[in-house]
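Page 42, continued from yesterday. The earlier attempt failed because a stray header line got pasted into the input along with the sequence. Redoing it now with the clean sequence only.
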Amino acid sequence: MGRMSEHVRAADELPEYAERVLAVAEEIPPGRVMTYGDVAEWLGEGGPRQVGRVMALYGGAVPWWRVVRADGAMLPGSELRALEHYRDEATPLRAAARSAEGHVPRIDMRHARWGGGGADDG
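This time it went through. Structure tokens are written below.
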């Protein structure tokens, strides 16, 4: 019986964790980004995969394009929508390598990464 109650409790925790992840995504200022790992570290729980899963399942209602991969690459299938947001918000981008598929730029993580403090922290 203990296992059953642990399973039920774990299922109940996912929405709460998802709410916290989404709240962080909403706090990221326009033109700035946090990595999946940054969000997990900020929350003090989970990891990049857990944050990515939350964003995949529930992130459509928040500025999902501001939670990114650590290498600055845009998610396959969402590049054009994300790129439109990045350009609208003046998110720092790096030109795509000539060998990059589709010549899609990457986020300039050095300049766009937000640490969770003031809007101009680095």
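Notes: The helical segments are 2-27, 36-43, 48-58, 79-89, 109-112.
Reminder to self: strip header lines before submitting.
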